[in-house]
Amino acid sequence: MQTLDVINSVTELSDTRVTGKTVVIIDVLRATSVMVTALSYGAKKVIPVLSKEEAFSYRNNHPEELVILAGERNADPIEGFDMGNSPVELIPGKIDSATLVMTTTNGTRTIRKADTASELYVASFLNAKATADVLGSTKELVLIASGTDGLYSVEDVLCAGYLISLLKQMNQNFHLSDAAIAALNLYESNMAHFPGITTEGRHYNILKKKGKNADLQFCFLKDKFPVVCQQKEGAIVKI
């Protein structure tokens, strides 16, 4: 039997729920949206790190690479970094073969915490269909909604629900956990007026107040990029 579970925030994440399983990390606003966009625009890889010190250290130790530092703390850019945590800051042709080193409040922390998974993918609305297409035969699948500051974020669970909807269209054999049933119901209840309830969410409105309207519009584009992004040897790459 194929099983499909949803973890609703990084604070729910534990080794027992992910070890040996295939996981998909979701951070719609905005880390995984940035990663997907960067790899679609030609970046060679994305390195998720936990701190700005770790990011600076990577660049110092890899002078042979074109390293771009990207990230945020509390939704604001980090001093000394090349860019914030924004997909609209990325320009096609400007990051060809670059290594994007990222640290964010939520998404990169979730990726690093899920390191006992057998396979790890990152996804957002931008590449949901392409990601679902490679997961249909997965035996044990866990979708991890990163959340915000350790709490539930409606946009991440909505994206998990969209992925489940896509998977069910391809394969009716997944046994859904209660959390997966709830995520699917959330998406189905909002798909007619997508992104629906997300616009009332805490993180959405934090970004809106900071003037990040272009990011908000971009991050909810469904299936803009036909790319699959998977972790290989500590780096997120396009496969």
TrEMBL record:
Keywords from the UniProt entry: Hydrolase, Magnesium
Pfam families membership: 2-ph_phosp
Keyword Metal-binding (UniProt): no
Obligatory cofactor(s): Mg(2+)
PANTHER family in alphabetical order: 2-PHOSPHOSULFOLACTATE PHOSPHATASE-RELATED
Protein family membership: Belongs to the ComB family.
Name the UniProt record assigns to this protein: Probable 2-phosphosulfolactate phosphatase
Originating organism: Marinilabilia salmonicolor
Originating gene: comB
